[in-house]
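Quick review question:
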């Protein structure tokens, strides 16, 4: 299961892993399968915690091991035990139970952890992936699990009946998206990959040295006559509210083209927000504050506040969540702007995108370098583009910045940690 979600994209291992789960129906086997799946898939988080956060290596793996145990209990052990207790006469109940807990852990506790969802692997299946316009990622999980079940039971007629609606809805989605594309307005976009090393982003003086080069890239992008320039999360080394020459230059550049940029800002009694600001006509015209904050990284939920005293790397003031779930707007552009980890939340992105005609995800995966975590994050971008049937701009500090079309295809992609610009023409899809 890990290999399918790794950056090596070894998809063909997933069916075998699921077959073993259905054949070896033992609670300890399910638990240890879940433990190693989560441990291997998420161990890349050690880069952020140990290398950049200064957490002791042994202490990190002790805490991380407990986290993997909790996830394995939540997603694998408890569903299996419930099935064994109440539905053990019917294997049919096992896939819905597993997916029910996928949905549950996507929202609870502390806002949920919607990561490593089985259905996201469907992006590698032509036609079937397009059915996500109607059958979201959790329905895709059911597809994978019931497919495995029917293979184990050798019920091939049921297997055909299972896949038929996904294939038919996939073709219907292709037709619907083609129809929308023919009627949609085109705009020219430029995505700026800032490629600031994470160790520099954590040192304000070192980060400031990159600011002029980044703004020069924005100016270069605008010189090509684009309608929108997009920069990543926390793209520049100062607050939006700071009275700086760089801010004034950014405002001035926005007279030529709209600029969407991620900023950290301080408002309302020195409280920080992680935000996306849209500049145009020489001023800020709209903004979005991140709603789903990441536990530990952006705030410490109760009762874990004491960890700030133990680990200076996670000290400081907690971020405040935004209160508005709406796209930022300028002229004909209505842009949904989920920030970083928010792209993993199905319902949030769906709400943000409902009134939008473009999705732009601003993120910084420099915390995880070129690891499995970075790949898993990018996977969600393709899923959300398919579910919402819109172009998605993935704008990353470190990489891989890219443009994803409504069919889940990556049209343009900037290599990892290369500073530069991606240009393309896209369409605003209702």
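Suggested answer, residue by residue:
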């Amino acid at each position: 299961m890990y290999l399918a979600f790794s950056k090596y994209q070894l998809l063909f291992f997933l069916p075998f892993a699921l077959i073993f789960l259905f054949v070896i129906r033992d609670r300890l086997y399910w638990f240890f399968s879940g433990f190693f799946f989560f441990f291997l898939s998420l161990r890349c988080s050690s880069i952020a915690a140990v290398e950049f956060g200064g957490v002791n290596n042994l202490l990190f793996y002790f805490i991380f091991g407990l986290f993997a145990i909790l996830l394995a209990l939540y997603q694998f052990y408890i569903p299996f035990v419930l099935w064994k207790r109440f539905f053990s006469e019917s294997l049919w109940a096992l896939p819905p139970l597993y997916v029910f807990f996928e949905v549950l852990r996507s929202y609870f506790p502390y806002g949920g952890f919607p990561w490593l969802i089985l259905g996201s692997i469907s992006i590698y299946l032509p036609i079937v992936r397009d059915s996500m316009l109607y059958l979201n990622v959790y329905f895709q999980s059911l597809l994978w699990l019931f497919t495995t079940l029917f293979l184990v039971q050798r019920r091939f007629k049921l297997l055909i009946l299972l896949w038929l609606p996904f294939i038919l809805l996939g073709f219907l989605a292709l037709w619907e998206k083609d129809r929308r594309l023919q009627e949609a307005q085109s705009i020219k976009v430029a995505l700026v990959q800032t490629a600031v090393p994470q160790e520099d982003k954590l040192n304000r003086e070192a980060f400031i040295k990159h600011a002029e080069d980044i703004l020069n890239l924005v100016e270069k992008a605008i010189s090509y006559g684009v309608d929108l320039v997009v920069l990543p999360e926390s793209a520049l080394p100062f607050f939006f509210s700071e009275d700086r020459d760089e801010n004034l230059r950014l405002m001035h550049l926005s007279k030529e083209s709209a600029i969407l940029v991620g900023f950290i800002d301080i408002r309302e009694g020195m409280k920080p927000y992680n935000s996306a600001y849209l500049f145009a006509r020489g001023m800020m015209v709209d903004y979005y504050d991140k709603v789903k904050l990441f536990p530990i990284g952006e705030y410490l939920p109760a009762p874990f506040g004491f960890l700030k005293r133990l680990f200076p790397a996670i000290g400081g003031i907690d971020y405040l969540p935004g209160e508005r779930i709406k796209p930022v707007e300028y002229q004909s552009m209505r842009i949904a702007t989920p920030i970083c980890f928010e792209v993993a939340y199905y319902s949030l992105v769906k709400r943000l995108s409902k009134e939008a005609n473009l999705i732009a995800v601003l993120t910084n995966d420099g915390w995880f370098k070129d690891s499995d975590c970075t790949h898993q994050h990018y996977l969600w971008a393709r899923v959300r583009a398919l579910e919402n049937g819109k172009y998605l701009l993935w704008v990353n500090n470190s990489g891989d910045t890219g443009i994803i079309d409504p069919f889940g295809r990556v049209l343009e992609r900037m290599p990892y940690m290369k500073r530069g610009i991606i240009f393309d023409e896209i369409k605003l899809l209702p």
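Why it works: The first helix runs from residue 2 to 5. The chain has two domains: 2-178, 186-428.
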